[in-house]
Write a structure and sequence with these properties.
The protein is α/β, with parallel strands linked by helices and 427 residues long. It has 10 helices and 22 strands. The strands form 5 sheets. The chain has a 9-stranded mixed beta sheet with strand order 8-7-9-10-6-11-12-13-14, with helices on both faces. Bound molecules: adenosine-5'-triphosphate and magnesium ion.
Length: 427
């Protein structure tokens, strides 16, 4: 059977189509090799063995020297580990990559920047350029040959970015789905065979997906996402997947002239002036990985003239906010239908934890009522559909950190049981 694959999104079809029904792009279907027709493979012998006869994995790790990155990786790069480093354009992927290779003998393949540019950055970051072998060869087959020749001299291979390399066996242009799949699978196999860690940089599309197929995420051992606003200097590194360590660790960095500097302050995303208590501003206490962090949530509620009032949300899940608005409306009897509501988390970060719920609710009711929240107060807890406040993960740690940072009031499942009670004590 002949199979046609969309070179943009990976959608498959039995016949050629002018327009892809999945991604709506024109003229993207290409014929794949035929399946079944000439495949006359003999039935193979089935082979299996006891796991106890397998050699234990060499658990030695290659340390990058960046404490936060090593922690996220689970102690450093494992042998043959393939790591995908993804992030929006300009967020600092190449900078982080180069810094992490500071103490390692590296084969650095760049299709994004010329040798001079990479050298200039390496000098600025204080990287020992004598340990970096640079190549701008982008054909995968050639890269693999180079990798085999050099594998005794190098500790690690870095590719910036996977969207620029291509396999000679595939006719699609670099960056297309089938090319990404082909190139990555060849590179991953080569890295594993040579027992070398491989770091590949991948761009993220505007929608927040890693440009190219999800299959790329399945193929690699770890996916690290680098987040942050380009206008702000703070960045968060998060493990979305990790076969060699846990995924509940994050690292916070600040982008400076000399490169990325690790930040160990749970208050980096909160404005210094805690005494300022404008209506709509709430500080949420949340566990990010194994550490407590504080985030400033701001809401602006304005009278709406629209039949369908506007809801604009940045930094937390949109549907989560709709759910909490319904809880407020029902349990506090606040009519929110006449307000446009804009909600934002300061610093361009995304809060994933449900512990931010209480902070979101406090921020919304403070803005709607136009009454400031008590100054130096933090909010931490999950809010249920029945208006109840549940204990957030790591609450004890959040509370002790809040006390150390001289927050005078802590609203959580320990002090209030439901949103109605909190509403009464607050306003
Ligand atoms: N000379 C410099 N001094 C200080 N900061 C710089 C300098 N040059 C670049 N930067 C910082 O580095 C950032 C770009 O970093 P980098 O090139 O690592 O991003 P990237 O994610 O690799 O981008 P791309 O997707 O374009 O490859 C800039 O946004 C800027 O903040
Ligand atoms: Mg780059």
């Amino acid at each position: 059977m002949t199979l046609f694959i969309c070179s943009n999104c990976g959608e498959g079809a039995a016949s050629w189509m002018g327009r892809c029904p999945s991604c709506q792009q024109w003229n993207t279907f290409v014929k794949q090799r035929e399946f079944g027709k000439d495949r006359k493979e003999k039935v193979k012998n089935f082979e299996a063995k006891s796991l106890s006869s397998i050699k234990t994995l060499d658990n030695s790790r290659l340390k990058t020297g960046i404490f936060e990155l090593d922690r996220i990786l689970g102690g450093g790069f494992a042998k043959g580990e393939v790591v995908l480093l993804s992030g929006e354009p300009g967020v600092g992927k190449s900078t982080l990559l180069l810094q992490s290779l500071k103490n390692l003998n590296t084969l650095y393949i760049s299709g994004e920047e010329a040798a001079e540019q990479v050298k200039d950055r390496a000098d600025r970051l204080g990287v020992d350029t004598a340990r970096l072998i640079f190549s701008d060869t982008l054909q995968v087959e050639a890269i693999i040959k180079g990798l085999k020749d050099l594998h005794k001299k190098i500790d690690i291979v870095a590719i910036d970015s996977i969207q620029t390399v291509y396999s000679a066996q595939n006719a699609s242009p670099p960056g297309s789905v089938s090319q990404l799949r082909e190139a990555s699978s060849q590179l991953i196999t080569a890295a594993k065979q040579n027992k070398l860690p491989l770091v590949i940089v991948g761009h993220i599309t505007k929608e927040g997906d890693i440009a190219g197929p999800k299959t790329l995420e399945h193929m690699v051992d770890a996916v690290l996402q680098f987040e942050g606003e380009r206008v702000s200097t703070y960045r968060i590194l998060r493990a979305l997947k990790n076969r060699f360590g846990s995924t509940d660790e994050i690292g916070v960095f600040e982008m400076k002239q000399g490169g990325l500097v690790e930040v160990n302050n749970p208050m980096v995303f909160v404005e210094d002036d805690l005494a300022d208590n404008t209506p709509g501003k709430a500080i949420a206490g949340v566990m990010e990985g194994k550490r407590p962090f504080f985030f400033e949530i701001q809401t602006l509620a304005t009278p709406s003239i629209l039949a369908m009032p506007r809801r604009v949300v940045k930094g937390v899940d949109y549907n989560k906010v709709l759910l909490l608005l319904a809880v407020i409306q029902k349990h506090l009897r606040l009519s929110l239908g006449s307000y446009d509501i804009y909600l934002n988390v300061i610093g361009g970060v995304d809060i994933k934890s449900t512990a931010a719920d209480l902070g979101i609710v406090a921020s919304i009711i403070s803005s709607v009522k136009n009454i400031p929240l008590p100054s130096r107060a933090i909010f931490s807890g999950e809010v249920g559909l029945l208006g109840e406040i549940r204990k957030s993960y790591g609450l004890e740690k959040i509370m002790s950190e809040a006390k150390r940072l001289k927050f005078s009031k802590i609203y959580s499942s320990k002090t209030v049981t439901n949103v109605k009670e909190m509403f009464k004590t607050l306003l």
